[in-house]
Amino acid sequence: MTAFQIHDKDTAPQASKPLLDKSIQAFGSIPNLHGVMAAAPTALESYQVLHEQFLNTSFSAEEKTVVWQTINVEHGCHYCVPAHSAIAKSMKVDDEISEALRNRTPLPDEKLEVLRDTTLAVVRDRGVVADEVLQRFYDAGYTQQNLLEIIVGVAQKVMSNYINHFADTPVDKQFQAFVR
């Protein structure tokens, strides 16, 4: 298998260079995932757009973390689970939520548990979600908008999780403390 290159501003295709500047602006450096994606400027740009759009959803920081980490854990992403643990910490998400997501144990809040269950159903059933799951989601206070926003999170995480599987992306130094 051919190893994937982790690009920097010197090695990246010309079209990726401004996108890597956006990564530096957002994260203070180029995350290894972004360096891998830089080989295909459309992949990196698509990922950045999806990330920004998911950040702009109506979900709270806790809810965003539930959607992201539910998908990361389900996909077994060696890179995104620690990365989003660090991101959750920076977003001031309670460690109890992060640990429950990583360990697949009950969340401390029933509404968040419903969000996790619905996100899992979307991923596992490829969008063909049972009426009972959707009714429970709506009964918990979520809306059709929220259901559609889960799809934005799924699209973002499918990109990163699958690319990390292909590339065996090394976990960045700033996320190492969250590797298990």
Describe the structure.
With 180 residues, the chain is mainly alpha-helical. It has a domain at 59-178: AhpD-like. It is 64% helix and 0% strand. It has nine helices and no strands. Helix 4 runs antiparallel to helix 5, helix 4 crosses helix 9 and helix 7 packs across helix 9. The two termini are 26 Å apart. The relative contact order is 0.16. The mean pLDDT is 97.
Number of strands: 0
Unreliable stretches (pLDDT < 50, length at least 5) are: none
Q: CA-to-CA gap between the ends?
A: 26 Å
CATH topology annotation of the domain at 59-178: AhpD-like
Biggest β-sheet, characterized?
none
Q: What proportion of the residues form beta strands (DSSP E)?
A: under 5%
Mean pLDDT: 97
The CATH homologous superfamily of the domain at 59-178 is called AhpD-like
**What's the alpha carbon Rg, rounded to whole Å?**
16 Å
Query: What's the CATH architecture of the domain at 59-178?
Result: Up-down Bundle
- Total helices: the number is 9
Kindly state the percentage of residues in helix: 55-70%
| Structural class category | mainly alpha
What is the element string, with H for helices and E for strands?
Answer: HHHHHHHHH
